[in-house]
Amino acid sequence: MTTFINSKGLPTPVLQLCETINNAYDKGECDISTTELIGEPLQRILKREYAEELVEDIADYQHRMIGSVLHDALCMMDGDKNSYSEQRLFIDVGGWIVSGEPDYYIKLKSNKLIDYKYTAKYKTKDGVPEEWQKQINIYAHMLIQHNKPVDVMQFCVWYRDAYAKRGDALVELIECPAYTQEQVADYLLKRVKYHQVSDPDWNELIDLDCVPECSEKARYHVPKKFALMKTGRKSAIKLYDSREDAEANKEKNGGKGFYIQERDETNDMCTTYCIVAEHCQYEQARRGDEKT
Length: 292
Prior knowledge:
It is a single chain. α5 crosses α6. By secondary structure, this protein is α+β, with helices and mostly antiparallel strands. A five-stranded mixed sheet has the order 4-7-8-9-10. The protein has a three-stranded mixed sheet with strand order 2-6-5. The mean pLDDT is about 95. The chain is globular and about 70 Å long. The protein is built from nine helices and 15 strands. It folds into two domains: about 5-210, Alpha-Beta Complex (Lambda Exonuclease, Chain A), CATH 3.90.320.10; about 220-290, no CATH class. About 35% of the residues lie in helices and about 25% in strands.
């Protein structure tokens, strides 16, 4: 169970609300939730192994808190006739019970599944994020397995950084492409098998130190780059994968007034957001390398 600290001295009700939201979550009697399934085995396992040692600052919890309050308030509403909200569903995949809780399902002329999101505008600038697509398609698959057909999938998205005077949409409905049932079933089985083989509680051939590192995408990994810079300019003219390419283009520009800036690789999820980073052998090894 996460322990919350209050480094900014925010009012006690804010702390209490964060604790209430965190403690209220229940994935039900299952081996893995949909969110965990889409996520990385290492994060899930470390959260389980160090559950009593996790600490989070409520100042870093605010967006999730607001999103959870909005989400919970919407799910408390009666909605339309022939609709329901937040009924947890369970399916058996590869010997594990997977649980998921669709936000809003309604049977009208078309059977519609809606998922609520509270996020920043960049999240949808290139369309529906892949992890959102996977999540809602799994929910649709679960509903279909429980004899509830799904014809349309949509996200109802509130933007926390939208600005009306700039012409931004403050909230919008975004339709999600549908996967085939075969695609979803195949994805579910592959993810379950990956989590099973990576879990020391399931696979006796490995221990905690052998759990695979999170993917580069999950770590928000940016590889080392070499920036071609110009004196007096703060931003890079161009980024290169190798120093040789950067040096070659420096010479093409005449060399004078230009220089090369080496930019180390980054893993922003690990350094800024991940609650189990202090217990992750891979992140600790990186931090150790930085100190030497």
